[in-house]
Amino acid sequence: MTNFNPLKMLCFFAIALILNGCGGPDERALNQPKKVAVIVSTLNNPWFVVLAETAADRATELGFEATIFDSQNNTALETDHFENAVSSGYDAILFNPTDADGSIANVRIAKEKGVPVFCMDREINATDAATSQILSDSYAGCVAIGKYFVEKLNKKGKYVEILGLVGDNNTWSRSKGFHSVVDNYPELQMVAQQNADFDRNKAMEVMESILQVHPDIKGVFCGNDAMAMGAYQALVSSGKADQVMVFGFDGASDVINSIRDKKILATGMQFPKLIARTAAEYAQSYFDGKRDFAQKVPVTVEMVNQENVKDYQAYGSK
């Protein structure tokens, strides 16, 4: 017969309480919410603020912890954010890249550690790095703007194009969509094409310089709404706001109001809230086990002008 040992039994009970009552490391980890990093190119533009905040809000609604990181249009700072997100145990990254080529390496940092990356609005030039890329159909949106531009300028006259960031594919998708239409009209003459990095103040300075050389332009096509507002401000200062038609792209609040006030002619309405929510929901699907995501998911862009502006509000339809 085995002798009863009270001390030994007490040890067994203690171990059982630790393992079963408190839970081991794996069980505790399972009870923690997933962590999602929202890394955006810049928070110095209202459009990206909406994109970032909507992504974080939707992630929070889905039960995740969400943190926003601002790359300040700096790929090196973006790299720091990716390394921080991976080392800090973030489970997914909702990502708005700074550069189509320069950001690829950062996405691979996450992929190598098994962290899915969902690109929002801006793409990277790789199809084997991000889990999925949810992108505005900038090209098609600017085809529509190009047609309206031709109509409003009566197929003739001098015009200017102000480009965004040269390293962003959206810059060139918008420009190519616009020119696919406008270049078919030989009496429409582009007298200047300069970049202003999607920045309002830079666009104002660029427009001021162009007007000194080409005071007789009839239209300005801008790659985003911040630059459209900067260009319009320069036209107001030079007394030419009533002589030059301005076209933007984004669907930002100040441009929607300016279209309503018959100051700016048109813009391409993107849907950043839809893009951001889709990215967060894709992250949830990934956590639930889905792996077969489309590499590129296009989101329609709609043209807003003075005729239909009543149907729209900032960053979306009413």
TrEMBL record:
This is Ribose ABC transporter substrate-binding protein. GO terms for cellular component: cell envelope. Belongs to the bacterial solute-binding protein 2 family. The keyword Cell membrane does not apply. InterPro entries: Peripla_BP_I (IPR028082), SBP_2_dom (IPR025997). Residues 36-290 form the Periplasmic binding protein domain. Its main location: other. The keyword Signal applies. It holds the Pfam family Peripla_BP_4. Keywords: Signal. It is found in: Cell envelope. GO terms for molecular function: carbohydrate binding. It comes from the Bacteria.
